[in-house]
């Protein structure tokens, strides 16, 4: 393959995505792009998201046109240096098409690991376990009211280098609905039991929001099981919380109300479509789901404030810790990042809300990969 | 979560609600099956198409009641039982039999709450099969949901898939008003992912199975699948459609229908009930009154002719709406204009 030619291909946003629509190009042929720049909008039945260029160079060719619906992995365009000739670009496109025809659907099959329900102590947990590799496995812990689909843009990418496990917390998704007293202690215990059940003595832990506080509780209660911590807008770093939005995320029973509630999670409101709200409602409507969330809400966010303080755990941490926080977070204000000890590597992301892993996917994945890689080397 | 048929989804909804709430009882012709006959065989049938099979053995003869062939008596008994503390689910078998017990439904169950000064609740569910396409001829093929929708005091559910059927039936059983729950007999073997746990879907909220910019297709019950098929074909031809499943014809999610029409400016309604005074008429009137200014083309209805459902297979096929007819109607509204756009 010629050097410095990069294929832009239809991304895979989550398990169920087999095809996507190129809604629009946001750059024109001849424009210079940097790695991580948004170059197109991709629409799926669940989400509309920006597609970020995997490489720097010039957008030399738009192979797909706006409005086209294409399978995952299909060629959208080519980014290359200015000195690549048009002939080289055409040859690259021809050989890309030939390659993909040969491969068939193998790649899609390999990444399409379905979640399964496993019994862990008192709980049955819905677990998606993907990726192989030498490294220490990575455990993803979603936030309050979320589920493992919160990692749909991250898990498979991170799984290129190590085993990555995502699961639905007790009371969430397709997991059982008993959450005990709803405390992070109980939820951290479930996460620890899951690691044991999967024969993982030690893992990198990546926790989002309440999952961040659970990750810290895991470090507090089972320090031997935690290799590194990656915290994304973690709970337990301050008192302030948007309790009204959290309540709506639990109680909303109409698609339009849920869509509105979910929009508080992101800075770019167009990311939350009706389908996404429908999918959350499907989970909320399971018997016991709302009660479980109310129990957790009462334990962690009583009286409109955060009632858990995980600061001391973070202060005492003697393992590599990194932190992500969107500067436009409407759920847990970014001010919580101020009090974080100096040894924590901080990434504050402008124009991003409570879910950097969804809103700033490419950069987030790259920074997490780099952090894990570095700590593998030093470990 | 696992794949379940429409039939299994309904059976599971009944089973889970009967386990949860001892006041839930079933009654109807052959819902137990074999009981009381001379053969001594129990649980042979589980209803004429096997939907309630296995419930007699789990819940016994006090909660799964085979009734005499007298709709007036057992629908009346179910209405009375509902008003006095049980949550009966009565099965009318074919909805076409409603003529034999219409007073019990229309004038009794539907009116208790209102005639007794709000002091009576009537948590009654009446399940019945509807719809053509089964070669069951004119007396066993009607789609009578407009008839029930017309009667104040009833809620009317027409589920479009196994997932919808389970959640809507559990909601119906937990609801404190009489609910008519209509199952399309052609759909019993349709299969999709259905959660193992109990869950509810609220009444009066439409579901969008496709989202598009050009045309809104409102479809009811089995018509939703056909509308999806048509929408998928049209998408490949550059026409994007919203497909809206109202789920319940009363309460009707007027707001979502109007919003979708405001967005797309074009409306096709697919309704397999007889064309006069059906849901397609009702929804047309709603949109004509409240969103006329948004319409870029006249409303189109894809409905059968006003005639009893034919027994002959070719004629029955001709009678039914289908994806081809929906596709043609969408193309027609795309060609038409109510006014020249400058």
From TrEMBL, chain A:
Residues 5-80 form the Lipoyl-binding domain. GO terms for cellular component: membrane. PROSITE patterns: BIOTINYL_LIPOYL. It holds the Pfam family Abhydrolase_1. GO terms for molecular function: monoacylglycerol lipase activity. SUPFAM superfamilies: alpha/beta-Hydrolases, Single hybrid motif. CDD domains: lipoyl_domain (cd06849). One of its GO terms (biological process) is acylglycerol catabolic process. PANTHER family: MONOACYLGLYCEROL LIPASE, MONOACYLGLYCEROL LIPASE ABHD6. This is Acetoin dehydrogenase. It comes from Acetobacter malorum.
From TrEMBL, chain B:
Keywords: Oxidoreductase, Pyruvate. InterPro entries: THDP-binding, Transketo_C/PFOR_II, Transketolase-like_Pyr-bd, Transketolase_C. It comes from the Bacteria. Pfam families: Transket_pyr, Transketolase_C. The keyword Secreted does not apply. SUPFAM superfamilies: Thiamin diphosphate-binding fold (THDP-binding), TK C-terminal domain-like. Residues 4-190 form the Transketolase-like pyrimidine-binding domain. GO terms for molecular function: oxidoreductase activity. Gene3D superfamilies: 3.40.50.920, 3.40.50.970. Coiled coil: none annotated. This is Pyruvate dehydrogenase. It comes from Acetobacter malorum. The lineage of its organism: Bacteria, Pseudomonadati, Pseudomonadota, Alphaproteobacteria, Acetobacterales.
